[in-house]
Design goal:
seven-stranded antiparallel beta sheet; Glucose Permease (Domain IIA); binds zinc ion; 137 residues
């Protein structure tokens, strides 16, 4: 398995004073393509921040369902932002109707884009954050 490294620099996707801890091992979902993901443990409704400048690529915040059962996998609310060099960042488990950005919108690093929620397959309130690249795989 090749170790991929992001080219761009990414900031914390939640406010530092709201972050309880990060976790890379506890989630059962961090396998395969998700092996580079990081969970930022924070209370529900904590602001989610763009990790770098970019353009919003995808927004879904219509789901109200979530919990500690894999049946909820597809119910995650998430945002994808496209950055320079073909890199993307993805933010998962967002709160229902919390997105404050639209597809095509330019965002700045540290700009608020949504709030932490419990949608999708998740045991506790956290932001599932991942950087990926269209050239990886
Ligand atoms: Zn996660």
């Amino acid at each position: 398995m090749e170790n991929k490294k992001a080219i761009n620099r990414y900031k914390l996707p939640v406010p530092k004073d709201r972050l309880q801890r990060t976790d890379r091992t506890s989630s059962p979902a961090h396998l395969g393509n998700l092996r580079n993901a990081i969970d930022f443990i924070a209370d529900e409704q904590t602001p989610v921040l763009a990790a770098a400048d970019g353009i919003v690529n995808f927004v879904k915040d219509s789901s109200t369902a979530g919990g500690s059962n894999p049946m909820y996998w597809d119910y995650t609310n998430f945002i994808v932002i496209r950055h320079l060099k073909g890199e993307y960042s993805r933010y998962d488990h967002l709160s229902y109707h919390s997105a404050t950005v639209k597809v095509g919108q330019h965002v700045r690093a540290a700009e608020k884009i949504a709030r932490v929620g419990m949608t999708g397959y998740t045991y506790l309130p956290h932001l599932h954050f991942q950087v990926f690249c269209s050239y990886w795989n």
